[in-house]
Fold this sequence. Notes:
The protein has 163 residues and is α+β, with helices and mostly antiparallel strands. The protein has one domain (2-131): Nucleoside Triphosphate Pyrophosphohydrolase (Alpha-Beta Complex), CATH 3.90.79.10. The chain is 21% helix and 38% strand. It has helices spanning 48-60, 107-112, 118-128, 157-160, and strands at 5-17, 20-26, 35-36, 39-43, 63-74, 79-89, 99-106, 135-136, 151-152. Strands 1, 2, 3, 4, 5, 6 and 7 form a seven-stranded mixed β-sheet that branches. The chain is globular and about 45 Å long. It starts with a strand and ends with a helix.
Amino acid sequence: MEGNTNWSWSVTAVVIRDGKVLLARHTYGVGKGLLIVPGGYVESGETPQEAVIREYLEETGVKIFPREIIGIRFNSHDWYVAFAADYIEGEARSDGDENSEVLWIPTDEALMREDVPDLTKKLIGCALSCDRGLHLVPYNGSLKNGPYSLYGVDFDINERGKL
């Protein structure tokens, strides 16, 4: 869907299952040959959560559920949101296009490998500490331009005083 792609908005997720992280060996660009967390661009009309679910399924054959936001990379031209996500179902496989292989790798090994770039290592570290991530916070906002999603830190309004 080239015409529907917003090239300034991108997403990824770190999926850890049984102590292993799901990584894909990238086939192009600066990440060619490296094991990275799958992800991609947000298409018109998609939320970041919908985009990361779609990207994972397309690229790896694995269905995921994004939970906390564990990182945001941005500059004056674009943004990249990283989620910690739960594995739902599916057998990991290469898409034969954007990646040449998809592997479950022990997290400790992934953090030490030379073919795993620094950003991916940082995101794995953030996912391993996701109790400090930004969680989905339900609220009653206007639906004029919605639906909206608010992610924030955990708090108890009774303990923190009035907002």
